[in-house]
Specification:
EC number: 2.7.7.59, 3.1.4.-
Number of strands: 17
Pfam family, one: HD
Strand content: 5-15%
GO biological process, one term: regulation of nitrogen utilization
GO molecular function, one term: [protein-PII] uridylyltransferase activity
Distance between the termini: 70 Å
Strand order of the largest sheet: 9-10-12-11-17-15-16-14-13
Number of domains: 5
Protein name: Bifunctional uridylyltransferase/uridylyl-removing enzyme
Shape: globular
Length: 947
C-alpha cells in the first residue's frame, strides 16, 4: 500500500474491495449477468459510503482540497477494481504477456487528472492503447465505462494510441490541456511513461507562447460569457471570474512554461513569493470547500452559488452573524476577497511570464522583441515609461522611493490613455505596505486621486484597476471596508465596491453625453451643474457605509465629512456631498412610492431639496445609482417618474406651482378635447365631455384623451359593457392596457389578479371614474418582448383575461392558484412584513405602506383585504426591489375621510401583516366570481394607481 493510499484509508479500503471483487468472480464467474449485477451493487455501496465519509470529514476539518482529493482517490479505487476485474475475469489475456494490462493504461484527465474531484463532477478518462490491432483493450474500456454509467456517473472519455494522442494534441488545445494533466490510475506503467515523455519532447517543448496565448484567450472568452466581473452576487464557482477554473489556468500555464509538476516549485523559481503561494493554496482550498458543499447540498454538479443555497453553505462553513453583516454576507465577502486574490495571482504570473519570454527570446527573435518592445518616455515623469501602449515602471524602486507614485501611476495612465503593464500592477500589489497615513494625508496624492475620479475620460476603468490591485481600499480605508461586500438580496447584482465604481461609470457616460437617449433630462442638466467635483465624490461614496449597524445614508454622510477635506473639497462642497449621501435614496423612493399628483408629495420633497441646484444633483445621483444596480433594474418608466417629480418640484421651487387656476385649467382642457372631437355629432360630443372629472382632464395628455374617446364610443356602439385596448411604449419599456368597465369596489383586485395570473408585473396604472358609473383604467405593465408584434399579442391576451375575470367567466382563485408558488430563489430571503399608516403624507388621504416578501398575486390579495375593511383606494403605488415589495395605498373611508381611529388602524395593520406573512389570505377565499350584480356607485373622484 502506497503512502497516498494510506492517507485515504478512511474513505475506502482498497484491499477489502479487491477481496470482495475476487469473491464475486469466484461465486459468479466473470462474464455473467449475475457477476456484473453483484459487481455493480458492490461498487455503488463503496461509492455511496465513501462519499458520505468524505462529506463527514469535510464538516469536521473544513478542507476543500482534502475533500476533493478523497473523492478522487475513491474514484481511482473503484476504476482500478473495475479494470482489474475486466482484465482478469471478463477479458483475460490469451497471450504470454507478463501482465493482463500491458497493452493499455487508464489515465485521469481534466480536474480529475490533478487528483481532485467534486462530489458531482464528471469523470474524464483517457484509455491509452499500445496499438489498435487488438480489440481486447477497447472491450475492457467499454466494460469499465458501462459499469460507471450504470452507477450514475457522467464520464467523458477517449480511447487513443500514443501516436493519436500526440497528433491530436498538436492541433487541439483542449486535448493538449487534458494530456498535460494526465495522471495514471491503473494499467501499464511503461505505456503511460512513454506518453508523457513523448508529449513533453514533441509537443510542449518550444510551444509555450502559443499555449499561453490560447489559454488566456479561452479564459477571457469564459469571463465574457459569465459577465466579465468577479463581483456578481451569484457567482459561478467553477467557471466564473476568480473561480477554480482561473486557478487551473494559472497552473496549466505555469506547468507548461516552467515544465513543473507541483505548484510549490513556482516559489523556488522566484515566480511567486512564499506569501503569494500561501494565498494560492488558501484560495484553492476555500473554493474547493465551497464547491464540494454545493454538490453535497444539491445532490448534483451545481456550480452557481445562487441565493437559495448561499445561506446553507455559509452555515455549513461555520460563518456567524456580526453587527451590520449577516453570516451569509460575511461568507460571500470572503468569497469575493478570494476571487480578488485569484486576480492578483493571475497578474503576478502573467507579468513574470512576459518577463521570462522576453529574456529567453533567441537570436533574431530577441532583436525583433527588443525593437518592438522598446520603451518610450512619458512626458513629465522619469519614474514611468510607455511599453507598447502600456504604462510600466522605470525601475523596481519607483514606489519605495516615492509612495505617491502608487497613485501617480494610475493618474498618468488616465492622462495618456495607457493600459497597464502586468509588471506595474504586480509591483503595486507587492508595495501596498507603503500605503500609510502619510500617503493618505498627502495633498498631492489626494489631488491626483480626485483628478482620476473626476476625469473626463474613463474614471471607472482606472478606479477598477486601482481596486483590483488592492490600492483603492488601502488608500481609502473606508472604501476598503466595503470591498467584496455583498448585500444578500435579489435587487443588487454586484458587490458594494463594484456597484460604486459602476455608478461612477454611469455618471461619466452622462457627463460625456454618451447616454442622452436613456437619460435625456440628466444629460440636459449635467452641463449646468456647477459642483461637478462634489457630485462625483458623492456618487463614489454614496454607499460607502454599507454593512454597518446604523443607517448607511447617515453613516455615509459622516464618512464624507471626514474624507472630503482630505480630497481637497471646501467646507461648502463637503456639506453638499454629505447632504447628497444622506438623501440619496429619497428621490427614488418618492418617485416610485408616492402620488406625484398629490400637492403634499411635491411640497414635502421641495422642503427636503430646498434649491434647484440640489434638485439637479440629486436627480443625477439617483439615476446613476439605479442604473448601476444591475441589468434590467433601470427602465424608461422609472426615468419618467423621476422626470415628473423633478419638473413638479422645479415648478414649486421656482414659484410656479399653484392650484389657483385648477378649475380654469380643467375647463380649458375640456374645451380642447371638445375641439378635437369636432367631427362628432354634437349630442354625442356633449354627452362624452360630461363623463370626465377634473383629475382626468388635468392629468391625461390630449392625445390619450382622444384615443380614449374613440375607444369608449366604439365600445358603446357595439354594446360592449367590458372592453380593452392595448398600446406599447418601447422607450419606457412599458405596455399599456386600457380597460373600460362598470365600476366596482374590487375592480383593482380583479385587474391586479389577472395581471399576476398572466405573469405581468404592474408598473403603474391610471384609474378614473366617469360620471355614469364606469371606470376607465389604464394599466401599465413591464414590457417582456422586444418585438412590438409579440408584445401586442401578449398584452391582448392579458386584456382578454381581464375581461373574462370582470365578466365572471373566470374566477380569480382559479387563475392565480397555478401561479401562486414563489420562485425557488424567493425562499432564500426573509423580509419581515411591515405596515405603517400615516396621515401626514397627504392633506386628503391616509397613506398605508406595506413592505414584505413579494409573491405572485400579492397585490390582488392586499387590495382585496383593503376592500374588506371598507377602505376606498384612491391611489396605489407598487415598487419592487428584488425579492422585496413596497406598496403604498392612498385611502379614505367610504365617506371620504381619513382613517384616524387608532383601533381601526391597528386592525388594518394586523390584517395586512397576516396577508404579507401568507398566514391569512381572506382575499383569495372571498374573491367574487365577477360582476354578476349591479355595481356599487363610487365617489365621483379619480383614482390614480402608480407603481
Amino acid at each position: 500500500m502506497t503512502q497516498h493510499d494510506m492517507k485515504f484509508t478512511e474513505i475506502v479500503d482498497a484491499p477489502a474491495l479487491a477481496r470482495a471483487v475476487s469473491a464475486i468472480a469466484a461465486e459468479h464467474g466473470g462474464a455473467t449477468p449475475e457477476a456484473r449485477a453483484a459487481l455493480l451493487a458492490e461498487m455503488r455501496r463503496v461509492s455511496t459510503e465513501g462519499r458520505e465519509k468524505a462529506r463527514s470529514l469535510l464538516e469536521s476539518d473544513g478542507s476543500g482540497l482534502l475533500c476533493a482529493a478523497r473523492i478522487s482517490h475513491l474514484q481511482d479505487t473503484i476504476i482500478t477494481a473495475l479494470f482489474d476485474f475486466a482484465t482478469t475475469h471478463v477479458y483475460p489475456s490469451q497471450g504470454s504477456g507478463t501482465g493482463a494490462g500491458d497493452g493499455m493504461t487508464v489515465a485521469a484527465v481534466g480536474g480529475y487528472g490533478r487528483g481532485t474531484l467534486a462530489p458531482g463532477s464528471d469523470i474524464d478518462l483517457l484509455f491509452v492503447l499500445a496499438d489498435r490491432r487488438s480489440g481486447r483493450e477497447e472491450e475492457v474500456a467499454q466494460f469499465v465505462l458501462y459499469v460507471l454509467w450504470d452507477m450514475g456517473f457522467k464520464v467523458g472519455h477517449a480511447t487513443r494510441t500514443i501516436d493519436e494522442c500526440i497528433r491530436l494534441s498538436r492541433s487541439d488545445i483542449t486535448i493538449r490541456t487534458a494530456i498535460l494533466e494526465a495522471r495514471r490510475i491503473c494499467g501499464a506503467v511503461p505505456l503511460f511513461d512513454a506518453l508523457t515523455e513523448r508529449f513533453d519532447t514533441q509537443v510542449v517543448r518550444s510551444t509555450a507562447p502559443e499555449f499561453i496565448e490560447a489559454k488566456l484567450a479561452e479564459r477571457d472568452q469564459r469571463h465574457r460569457k459569465s459577465g466579465d466581473t468577479r463581483y456578481l452576487v451569484e457567482p459561478n464557482v467553477k467557471e466564473g471570474k476568480g473561480g477554480l477554473r482561473d486557478l487551473n489556468t494559472l497552473f496549466w500555464i505555469a506547468k507548461y512554461f516552467y515544465r513543473i509538476d507541483d505548484e510549490a516549485e513556482l516559489v523556488k523559481l522566484g515566480v511567486l513569493s512564499k506569501g503569494e503561494f500561501k494565498v494560492f493554496k488558501k484560495a484553492e482550498d476555500f473554493l474547493w470547500a465551497v464547491r464540494c458543499q454545493m454538490h453535497f447540498l444539491t445532490g448534483k454538479a451545481e456550480e452557481r452559488l445562487s441565493f437559495d443555497i448561499q445561506r446553507e453553505i455559509a452555515e455549513a462553513l461555520g460563518y456567524h452573524d456580526h453587527p451590520g453583516l449577516s453570516a451569509v454576507e460575511r461568507f460571500m465577502k470572503h468569497y469575493f476577497l478570494v476571487a480578488k486574490d485569484v486576480g492578483d495571482l493571475t497578474r503576478i504570473l502573467c507579468a513574470e511570464l512576459e518577463d521570462q519570454q522576453a529574456k529567453e527570446a533567441p537570436g533574431i527573435t530577441a532583436m525583433i522583441t527588443r525593437f518592438t518592445a522598446r520603451t518610450r518616455k512619458i512626458a513629465g515623469t522619469l519614474d514611468f515609461l510607455e511599453d507598447r501602449g502600456r504604462i510600466t515602471i522605470a525601475d523596481k524602486d519607483v514606489f519605495k522611493r516615492d509612495p505617491v507614485n502608487l497613485i501617480r501611476l494610475f493618474h498618468l495612465a488616465d492622462l495618456n490613455g495607457l493600459e497597464f503593464h502586468p509588471d506595474a500592477l504586480k509591483r503595486v500589489t507587492r508595495s501596498l505596505r507603503l500605503v500609510k497615513n502619510e500617503l493618505r494625508e498627502d495633498a498631492e496624492a489626494n489631488r491626483l486621486f480626485l483628478s482620476i475620479l473626476t476625469s473626463r475620460r474613463d474614471p471607472a476603468l482606472i478606479l477598477r484597476r486601482m481596486n483590483e490591485a488592492g490600492l483603492l481600499g488601502r488608500f481609502i480605508p473606508e472604501f476598503g471596508k466595503i470591498v467584496a461586500m455583498m448585500q444578500f438580496n435579489m435587487y443588487h447584482h454586484y458587490t458594494v465596491d463594484e456597484h460604486l465604481i459602476r455608478t461612477v461609470g454611469v455618471l461619466s457616460d452622462i457627463d460625456n453625453g454618451r447616454d442622452m437617449d436613456a437619460h435625456p433630462l440628466s444629460s440636459k442638466i449635467m452641463p449646468s451643474v456647477e459642483e461637478r467635483q462634489a457630485l462625483y465624490v458623492a456618487v463614489f461614496l454614496h454607499d460607502v457605509a454599507k454593512g454597518r449597524p446604523e443607517d448607511h445614508s447617515v453613516a455615509g454622510a459622516r464618512v464624507a465629512r471626514k474624507l472630503c477635506p482630505r480630497f481637497g473639497l471646501s467646507p461648502k462642497q463637503t456639506e453638499l456631498v454629505a447632504w447628497l449621501i444622506e438623501e440619496h435614496l429619497k428621490m427614488s423612493m418618492i418617485a416610485q412610492a408616492r402620488d406625484l399628483n398629490d400637492r403634499k408629495t411635491i411640497e414635502d420633497f421641495a422642503q427636503i431639496v430646498q434649491s434647484l441646484d440640489r434638485l439637479k444633483l440629486l436627480l443625477i445621483l439617483t439615476v446613476c445609482d439605479i442604473r448601476a444596480v444591475g441589468p434590467g433594474v433601470w427602465n424608461g418608466w422609472k426615468g419618467q417618474l423621476l422626470r415628473t417629480l423633478y419638473y413638479e418640484t422645479e415648478l414649486m421651487l421656482s414659484g410656479g406651482f399653484s392650484e389657483v387656476s385648477r378649475r380654469e385649467r380643467a375647463l380649458f382642457a375640456s374645451e380642447q378635447l371638445g375641439k378635437a372631437l369636432a367631427s362628432w355629432d354634437e349630442a354625442d360630443r356633449q354627452r362624452y365631455l360630461g363623463l370626465h372629472y377634473e383629475p382626468y382632464l388635468l392629468s391625461t395628455e390630449l392625445e390619450d384623451q382622444i384615443r380614449h374617446a374613440e375607444f369608449v364610443r366604439e365600445a358603446d356602439r357595439e354594446g360592449r359593457v367590458l372592453a380593452t385596448m392595448v398600446r406599447t411604449h418601447s422607450f419606457h419599456a412599458i405596455t399599456e392596457i386600457t380597460v373600460l368597465s362598470p365600476d366596482h369596489p374590487r375592480l383593482l383586485t380583479l385587474v391586479a389578479g389577472a395581471c399576476a395570473a398572466a405573469g405581468a408585473n404592474i408598473a403603474d396604472a391610471q384609474i378614473f371614474t366617469t360620471s355614469d358609473g364606469r371606470a376607465l383604467d389604464t394599466i401599465l405593465i413591464n414590457r417582456e418582448f422586444k418585438d412590438d408584434a409579440d408584445e401586442i399579442r401578449r398584452a391582448t391576451s392579458i386584456g382578454r383575461l381581464i375581461e373574462d375575470m370582470l365578466s365572471g367567466k373566470k374566477r380569480l382563485p382559479d387563475v392565480i392558484a397555478p401561479k401562486s408558488k414563489q420562485p425557488r430563489k424567493a425562499h432564500a430571503f426573509k423580509v419581515p412584513p411591515a405596515v405603517t399608516i400615516s396621515n401626514s403624507l397627504s392633506n386628503k388621504f391616509t397613506v398605508i405602506e406595506v413592505e414584505g416578501l413579494d409573491r405572485p398575486g400579492l397585490l390582488a390579495s392586499i387590495t382585496a383585504v383593503l376592500s374588506d375593511l371598507s377602505l376606498d383606494i384612491t391611489s396605489a403605488h407598487v415598487s419592487t426591489f428584488g425579492e422585496k415589495v413596497i406598496d403604498n395605498f392612498y385611502v379614505t373611508d367610504l365617506v371620504g375621510h381619513k382613517i384616524v381611529s387608532e383601533t381601526r388602524q391597528a386592525n388594518i395593520i394586523a390584517r395586512l401583516k397576516a396577508v404579507m406573512a401568507n398566514v391569512e389570505d381572506e382575499a383569495r377565499e372571498r374573491m367574487p366570481n365577477g360582476m354578476v350584480a349591479p355595481p356599487t356607485p363610487r365617489r365621483a373622484s379619480a383614482r390614480r394607481v402608480k407603481a
